[in-house]
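Hey, weird one. I pasted the RidA family protein sequence into the form twice and got a warning about non-standard characters only the second time. First submission, copied straight from the form history:
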Amino acid sequence: MPNSVVYSAQAPAPIGPYSQAVQAGNTVYVSGQIALDSETGQLVGGGDVAQETHQVMRNLQAVLQAAGLTLRDVVKCSIFVKDLGNFGVINDIYGSYFTADYAPARETVEVSRLPKDVQVEISCIAVK
């Protein structure tokens, strides 16, 4: 079965040569999402990590929905943060989108810089 590109108008368009997500068989690989508003293309939150994290999660949900999936189908997330000092806020918000009975595997990594100088970027892998 060939790979297929997943696209959602409800999530920000890619800002480089990549797809929002790619489906390979029953697995969907969602590219890292940042806090961009899909309608305006502008960053959400003005540097507020809580607002950014909520927007990132909404963007992930939109891409997953375009693939016919939900957060319950996510098996792995990768979280990239500019400052691990914000981990508590990001973790609490991230955790509000999952419950213990279906929380995916994940890692959280501090990086020196993210696209458009955002505070957080999250990617995920989901299985149908």
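That's the output from the first submission. The warning seems to come from a hidden character in my clipboard, not from the data itself. The chain has one domain: 4-127.
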